[in-house]
Design a protein that fits this description.
This protein is α/β, with parallel strands linked by helices. The chain folds into two domains: 3-216, Spore Coat Polysaccharide Biosynthesis Protein SpsA, Chain A (Alpha-Beta Complex); 218-325, no CATH class. It has helices at residues 16-24, 44-54, 69-79, 98-108, 142-147, 162-168, 179-189, 213-216, 218-238, 244-264, 266-279, 289-298, 300-328; strands spanning 3-9, 31-38, 59-64, 84-87, 93-94, 113-115, 118-124, 127-134, 158-161, 194-196, 204-207. The strands form two sheets. A seven-stranded mixed β-sheet has the order 3-2-1-4-9-6-10, with helices on both faces. Strands 5-11-7-8 form a four-stranded mixed β-sheet. Strand 7 (118-124) and strand 8 form a beta hairpin. The longest helix has 29 residues, at 300-328. It is globular. The termini are far apart.
Amino acid sequence: MLASVVIPAYNAEEWISETLKSVLAQTHEDLEIVLVDDGSTDRTVEIAEESLRRGRFPYRILDQPNKGAAEARNRGWQAARGSWIQFLDADDLLDPQKVELQITQCLACAADVVYSDWQKLVLSGGAWTGDDLRAPVIGPDALADVLSDRNFLQLGSQIFRANILDLVGGFDRSHEPVEDVGLCVKIAMAGGVFVKARSNGPIAWYRDRPRSLSKSNQRRFVESCIKNAKLAEQYVRENSNYSARTVEAIVDGYYFGARYFAEHDWSRFEEIVRDIEALQPAFVPKTPIRLKVLSRIAGYRKAERFALLYRRGKSLGTNVWRDISARSQK
């Protein structure tokens, strides 16, 4: 069964060779590689072509002006010939048996998405080291599960049936940089089946780079998380077959945004709280415990306002004390 590995790449000369090495080492024989150069200005294409030319799998390199990872992936899977699509970012890695293991699972059941355990790599002392193993579990209540942080499905850890991508339309650029979660939300809403392929440890690795989009533009990241929650809320309002867990997961997504905007944009915070209260009128956060207790007494809005004033006062006091200490040492 042909599987297509789709790799969006933008100025990835530092990483692309190692990433392609992990693809070229795959034990699944029926494989093609589609690399989409997203307007790189460095040697990404030159290095990639050199690696691919030495490999045993057929490949294509497509190019486009810089449009972002979502559109690059969409172009890649739409041009791919495989029945199954493996997405892989240009700095991430796969275990040699990753595709074979998951394709075998595909043949054994009616899955639309097959996923496995994965691991984050963090840069420490100039070397990449493994973080804790991530072991997501997507159960029958798929929409609630894919919205949950504890079940985050790193994109490279999955393989997708091409038909399900056609059905939901692939990635939504407006949901970047968490358009991968948005894709899984759309698949879950469409009734897609998620199946786990068990493995002895992680079979995909994500490099947590300091300059990633989610870190460089925190507001955009938070707004994208809110968009995914809003997408799920629209489904809940239009359908009767949803669970209380799904509503709770949507509220958790809004609460994540509310906490950020309480610190940075109070009017946006108020908008998000209205979304929360439309689903849970007597909303009380689960954590942190002090905010939970105060919300029960004064309501969430006032509790968050008190918490904000407390944090600012504490920060101001700390800064004053530092100034006094610095002056006394002169």
